[in-house]
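Risk register update: the risk of archive-format incompatibility is retired. Evidence:
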Amino acid sequence: MTLRMQKILTMIVMDVVLLTELCWSIWRASTAEDFSHSFLTLYVPMFLPTVTLFIWRLRHLNKRIASEETALQADAAGAEARA
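Archived output:
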């Protein structure tokens, strides 16, 4: 799988995970007396690590994509110099 496809797949997975966390938190908080407090105490502890992990993953993929593109450009420049 290419790095760009991994990046797209990561974004899709992140969206699904965040939507699932949001729905679960709303459902759980709807049965509590204080919806706002319950929702925030359920959602924020799940949201922050999820977003942090996915941001780290996307940065890691961006660095790998940039290094791959640099290597391809260097190979192309080397081929032109030999010709």
